[in-house]
C-alpha cells in the first residue's frame, strides 16, 4: 500500500472511530466547555486513540525507512 493510501485509510478509520464513540454514548456534536460529561469522555477516548494511531504510524514508517 502506498503512503498516500495508508494516510487516507488512517483518516477514514479516525472518522469512523469518532463517529462510533459519539454513537456509543448516544450524543450529538455540540462541543465546548458546557459539554456533558459523556461527551468529554468520548473526546478524551478519541484523543487517546489518535495518539496511539500516530505512534503506530511513526513506528511503522521508522521501521520501513530503515530497511
UniProtKB/TrEMBL annotation:
<protein>
    <submittedName>
        <fullName>Uncharacterized protein</fullName>
    </submittedName>
</protein>
Amino acid at each position: 500500500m502506498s503512503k498516500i493510501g495508508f494516510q487516507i485509510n488512517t483518516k477514514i478509520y479516525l472518522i469512523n472511530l469518532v463517529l462510533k464513540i459519539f454513537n456509543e454514548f448516544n450524543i450529538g456534536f455540540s462541543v465546548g466547555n458546557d459539554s456533558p460529561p459523556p461527551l468529554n469522555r468520548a473526546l478524551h477516548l478519541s484523543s487517546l486513540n489518535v495518539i496511539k494511531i500516530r505512534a503506530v504510524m511513526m513506528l511503522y514508517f521508522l521501521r520501513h525507512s530503515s530497511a
